[in-house]
Design a protein that fits this description.
It is a single chain. The protein starts with a helix and ends in a 5-residue tail after the last helix. It has two domains: about 120 residues, Arc Repressor Mutant, subunit A; about 55 residues. It contains eight helices and four strands. A two-stranded antiparallel sheet has the order 1-2. The chain has a two-stranded antiparallel sheet with strand order 3-4. The protein is about 60% helix and about 10% strand. A hairpin with a 2-residue loop joins strand 3 and strand 4. With about 180 residues, it is of the alpha+beta class.
């Protein structure tokens, strides 16, 4: 991977960590990067495929590990009675990462702000469902509403038809699906 692509990605991660105010975990990071590419055309260079929790690219997690090792980001695991979650925050070299990718950040600042404002406070399960609907709609070319709902239900049986329909309606109302 080219160094400038990695630098751009890490700077975007820092921006997302800053903008989501402590609400950034691994799932959120993955889905926000997906939305940046899918909805806003930000050239992060990830190749997402459908996985258990929606669109996934292992390079996002690899880049997160790189960011942690470079002190660009800091991740803590927070435990609670039902399990745990990752808390991703800006590290001591986060500002430097943003400065190094200044032109890229400047060019895509509105897109980063948009995705953070639109989805930054969403829980992981809602991001999982919305990104799965978007992925199946775009990658599989399913446009018929009922067919899309049924396809998503097959992939995500733990979501009800009502939840899928509601999320699909929101995405359509926001004009995020074609």
């Amino acid at each position: 991977m080219q160094a400038n692509i990695l630098g751009n990605r890490l700077a975007v991660f820092v921006q997302l960590a800053e903008r989501t105010s402590g609400n950034l975990g691994r799932t959120q990071l993955m889905k926000l990067c997906y939305f940046l590419q899918a909805f806003r055309g930000v050239p992060l260079g990830y190749s997402f495929s459908l996985y258990s929790y929606g669109p996934f690219d292992s390079e996002v997690l690899s880049d997160l590990q790189t960011a942690e090792s470079m002190s660009v980001l800091h991740t803590e695991i927070q435990y609670y009675p039902g399990g745990y979650k990752y808390d991703i925050r800006t590290g001591e070299k986060g500002e430097r990462a943003k400065a190094n990718a200044g032109p890229f950040i400047t060019e895509h600042q509105k897109d980063i702000d948009w995705v953070a404002n639109k989805f930054g406070s969403w829980p992981a399960s809602d991001l999982e469902l919305a990104s799965t609907i978007a992925y199946i709609s775009e990658e599989e070319g399913i446009e018929a509403r009922d067919e899309l709902i049924e396809r998503v239900k097959l992939v995500k049986p733990h979501f009800s038809h009502r939840q899928i329909r509601s999320q699909l309606d929101w995405l359509l109302n926001e004009r995020l699906l074609h």
